[in-house]
Design goal:
The protein has 14 helices and 5 strands. The protein has about 300 residues and is an alpha/beta fold. It folds into 2 domains: about 200 residues, no CATH class; about 80 residues, no CATH class. It has a 5-stranded mixed β-sheet, sandwiched between helices. Helix 3 links the parallel strand 3 and strand 4. Helix 7 runs antiparallel to helix 8 and helix 11 packs parallel to helix 13.
């Protein structure tokens, strides 16, 4: 599942998101969350909490969705670079791993409070047990609940919890979008109607923000790339990315059919990409091999 962008978007909602993903660390005072690039070497910090109006510590956050041998050194490098630019600030690092087994092991010096680690496969189930009505916890249901049948049963309650919680509108929209996106990632073969039934909602999935963003991205990519290389090619490339995300590596015949399709056909396929159960259902049957002619 694609988690990196959603994790940073989640952290941007504020202190409660940080408390959940850090395992219980409470930000003291006001903080702002942003990303920045260290000048001179163009090193990007994807997530950072900086204190506003007080001298609390700065938290540099890195999320690791897969094993990387240099994960800790990457965090230490960013801590050093930030500290070099802000020598009077206290800087601490939090390395969030999706799975405990992805941790390559902290090197000497990467010790609390300078650096700490959080493992979502351990943290999130405990949060769900302790705080089942916390919208900042239930949004992770697609990552926490391993069994598909259990997730199907839990999904409507998770969405209802987010919608009924006393949240700022922008925060509620973010959590709803994350939940819908991760459910689409967990159940890529379900149609929009089946997902809507699972969530027990009356609004068609096609009208939800996450669906519109996925579809709009395909349209926008097609238009942008079309200005340079032809509108049809741009839409074909966007459709290839969406289909690869749903069904894996595309067979050669699929790629050839997309490359040869007219714009109106590509638009039709883009509209049906989330409803299709298979490549063949969306773009037609695999072509038969031509029979060999005798001598």
């Amino acid at each position: 599942m694609k988690t990196d962008p959603s994790i940073y978007e989640f952290l941007a909602t504020g202190a409660e998101a940080f408390r959940v993903l850090s395992g219980g660390v409470i930000l003291q005072g006001a903080y702002r969350f942003n990303s920045l690039t260290i000048k001179g070497i163009e090193r990007r910090l994807d997530g950072i909490y900086e204190p506003e109006g007080h001298d609390g510590p700065v938290y540099v956050i890195e999320f690791q969705a897969q094993y990387a041998a240099g994960a800790w050194y990457n965090l230490l490098t960013k801590l050093g670079l930030y500290g070099q630019e802000h020598p009077r600030r206290t800087v601490q690092g939090l390395l969030i791993f999706l799975h405990t087994g992805d941790d390559p092991g902290a090197p000497p010096g990467a010790v609390p409070p300078l650096c700490t680690a959080a493992y979502l496969d351990e943290l999130l189930p405990r949060w769900l047990e302790r705080e089942p009505d916390n919208p900042f916890v239930v949004v992770f249901a697609p990552l926490i609940i391993a069994r598909d049948d259990a997730l199907r049963a839990c999904a409507p309650r998770a969405l209802r919890t987010i919608r009924e919680a006393p949240l700022a509108p922008t925060t509620r929209e973010t959590l709803e979008r994350m939940l819908e996106f991760w459910l689409i990632e967990r159940f890529p073969l379900l149609s929009s109607e089946e997902l809507r039934t699972m969530l027990n909602v009356l609004v068609p999935l096609e009208q939800t923000r996450v669906y519109q963003e996925i579809f709009a991205k395909g349209k926008a990519d097609g238009k942008t790339e079309g200005e340079a290389e032809g509108e049809a090619k741009g839409k074909a490339d966007s459709l290839k990315r969406l289909l690869t995300r749903r069904f894996g590596v595309l067979p050669r015949w699929v790629v050839q059919r997309l490359d040869a399709a007219a714009i109106t056909q590509l638009d039709g396929w883009l509209e049906g990409v989330l409803d299709a159960q298979s490549l063949e259902q969306l773009i037609g049957p695999k072509p038969r091999r031509a029979a060999r002619k005798g001598p």
